[in-house]
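Hi again,

Forgot to attach this to my earlier email, sorry! This is the prediction with flavin-adenine dinucleotide bound. I've pasted everything inline since the attachment limit keeps bouncing my files.
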Amino acid sequence: MGKTTLIFKTRIVVIGAGQAGLSAAYYLRQKGLVPGKDFVILDQSPQPGGAWQYRWPSLTLSTVNRVHDLPGLPFGDTLENDHTNVRASVAVPHYFDVYENTFGISVFRPVKVSVVCRRDGRFRVETDRGMYSAEGLINATGTWETPYIPEYPGAALFEGIQLHTKDYRTADVFAGKQVVIVGAGISAIQLLDEVSRVAGTTWVSRKPPLFREGPFDESAGRDAVAIVEDRVRRGLPPGSVVSVTGLPVTPAINAMRARGVLNRLPMFSEITKTGVRWADGREIDADVILWCTGFRSSLDHLTPLMLREEGGGIIMTGRLATQVAKDPHIHMIGYGPSASTIGANRAGRAAVAELMATLGMS
Ligand SMILES: Cc1cc2nc3c(=O)[nH]c(=O)nc-3n(C[C@H](O)[C@H](O)[C@H](O)COP(=O)(O)OP(=O)(O)OC[C@H]3O[C@@H](n4cnc5c(N)ncnc54)[C@H](O)[C@@H]3O)c2cc1C
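C-alpha cells for the complex follow:
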C-alpha cells in the first residue's frame, strides 16, 4: 500500500516572513483572510526578523541605511529611548516579533520550502515539515541565503581563507593578518572600515565605487527604483537598488579617507596559492579574501515552475512589477525594485490586491 501524504490546503501561501512577507501578511489580514486557514506564511529561520537576525553584531541602528516601518506599527514604538547603538540583529527581530503578535500573524517556522510545482491547477509547496497546496503564491524569500562570489582563476589553489559578507561576525579574527576586501557596495565599505583597524587591507573592486556627495532625496530614490523596475519588466536580472543609488558620503567614509584606507585598486585577474595577482604581473600576499560581492535572489525552490528567461531574469508585470508575467498567480516581493525595506512594504500591498483579484477573491 502507498503511503498517504497529508496536504494542508489553503488559498495563498506566502514564503518568507521578512519585511516583504510580513507586509503581505498584514494586507491579507486586512482583506479579512484568516492566517493559518485562508493563507499560511512559512519561514525557514528559527526566529522572527527575516535576514536581520543574521546580520553581524557591529551593524547597529546608527550604521544601517534605514529600516522603514512595516504597515500599521512604527518601528520606533518598539525601541528603547536610546537605541542608536542597538544591534540591528536584535532590534529588528524584536520589532518583527511584536509585529507578528500585534496583528496575529502566526508564522509557521522553521519551515523550509524545498520545491514548488504545479499540480492539478494548484501550487504544490513541498517543505521539510509537510506539504501545502494553494491557488496563489507570494514569494518573499529575500537574498540572504544566496551569497554571490564571482569566479576567478586559481580560487581553489588559495591556501588562505575565503569568506563572504554573510560569514562576517567581527573584525577581531583578522587581527594582524593581510586581508583583501572585494566589492564596491555599502557592506564592502563598512567591513573595510572595521577590518582596516586591526589588519592590513587591500581593497579591490570590478567597478570604481560610486560615491554620492550631497543628500539623497526621495526623487533620487524613486529614480533608482525606476531603473531596476524597468529591468525586471524587460525580464533582465534585477541588479540591486543600492547599486544604482550610489554610496552616500558619510562621516565614517570621510574618516576612512583621512586614515588612508579608502584606496581602491582594480580587480585582480587571478588568485594564487598565497594571494592575488593582477594582469600586469603585480602580486600581493594575503591570508584572507573577504568577498563583499553581494547576493542573488533566493529562488531555487521555484525552479520547476520554469519562470526564468534565457538571460536568467523573470519578466515581471503588475502595478509595482510584483506579478510574474508567465503565471499571474505568483507574486514576488522583495525582488528587484522592491528589494529594500520601503519597497517591500509597498509591494506587499500591491501584490495582495492583484493576487486576490486574479483569484476572484476581491
Ligand atoms: C547587510 C545588509 C544590510 C542591509 N541594510 C538595509 C537597510 O539599512 N535598509 C534597507 O531598506 N534595506 C537594507 N538591506 C536590504 C534588506 O535586506 C531588505 O531591504 C529587506 O530587509 C529584505 O526583506 P525581505 O523580506 O525581502 O527579505 P529577508 O529579510 O531576507 O526575509 C526573507 C525570509 O525568507 C525566508 N526564506 C528564504 N528562503 C526560504 C525558503 N526556501 N523557505 C522558507 N523560508 C525561506 C528567510 O528565512 C527569511 O526570513 C540590507 C541588506 C544587507 C545584506
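The radius of gyration is 22 Å. The chain has two domains: 7-145+296-358, 155-210+246-291.

That should be everything now.

G.
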